[in-house]
């Protein structure tokens, strides 16, 4: 089983430089990976050697592939005969705060397992509960990707057991904290193999004292790796802030979306009700749009993303939670209908465009209601944003009258046998 030879580059680490199983190397080559990103080059020597890891890296740095390669290599290095495996007992657990992120991790895991024969199962809210339960009950699960709420449900019904884990992965720990999931995560970890008997890999974009305290509780003698991007915002994203009144935002946005250079756009608003209103207003103006927020059923969200990817929908209106899972190539523009209250969310939002070497455009609207967020954003990204007033063409009256809306406040194998078994030797 030969994999293509990757030329030596003294400045970069090749995946072929690691002693990875041939089936895994074949999958890596098939995806098109040749050289490691900085987070992969820093962490893989540590994690492949079995060390616990606390990694600080932004979204889009390649951390998902880093922890999945380690997990799959562990499965290949320490195989368990199929006859000795039971359903309901994953060997790898990857916890993610959002459904979109969990689905992306699962997709990447399936690609990396293309030639290894390992089974990836995803359990998350908003999708078919019975199907997920049947998979847990009746299939040997090698890698389980889960969001905390649904996993708690299956732990409670004893459809899954976590005392046979080899590796626990916690992704976006800071987002888990922000979304209030830490009590659920603590309950899950109490069901896991003790930290002395498992490997734990924890990743977070930021580390405050709360996240550091949790990291020390959940890991043992962990290595710490921090990858600071050269710039917190993508070099290829052109960023503009329009100083505009709240009542003029829809006019400017609608006119901008009709420009020929806008082919695929994501529009962020801070709250679900704002997204609902905005999506309805844009449709009324003849813009091909769809809504993507936490209240939309997962099956519909997936269909919406597929239509966005194939160009059937020009613009998505999304909340930050939903937007974190949008990994779509060719997004030409990102619009911030409201400036985010959290500066880090600004970076995540505009990171949806300008990906894979492409040029992207970020347009933000700042009114009296949200301009106060600008200084914190500029401090966080270490650059001054260009603030200007909209061009005259963007203020042209709309074809359909704008519906008045009441102003809202901005707060916001077989089944596991009965009885307990001892940990594998």
TrEMBL record:
Residues 44-225 form the Helicase ATP-binding domain. A motif (Q motif) lies at residues 13-41. InterPro entries: DEAD/DEAH_box_helicase_dom, DEAD/DEAH_RhlB, DEAD_box_RNA_helicase, Helicase_ATP-bd, Helicase_C-like, P-loop_NTPase, RNA-helicase_DEAD-box_CS, RNA_helicase_ATP-dep_RhlB. SUPFAM superfamilies: P-loop containing nucleoside triphosphate hydrolases. Residues 13-41 form the DEAD-box RNA helicase Q domain. One of its GO terms (molecular function) is helicase activity. It catalyses: ATP + H2O = ADP + phosphate + H(+). The keyword Nucleotide-binding applies. It comes from the Bacteria. Keywords: ATP-binding, Cytoplasm, Helicase, Hydrolase, Nucleotide-binding, RNA-binding. It is found in: Cytoplasm. Its EC number is 3.6.4.13. Residues 392-425 are annotated as: Disordered. The keyword Nucleotide-binding applies. Belongs to the DEAD box helicase family. RhlB subfamily. Component of the RNA degradosome, which is a multiprotein complex involved in RNA processing and mRNA degradation. This is ATP-dependent RNA helicase RhlB. The gene is rhlB.
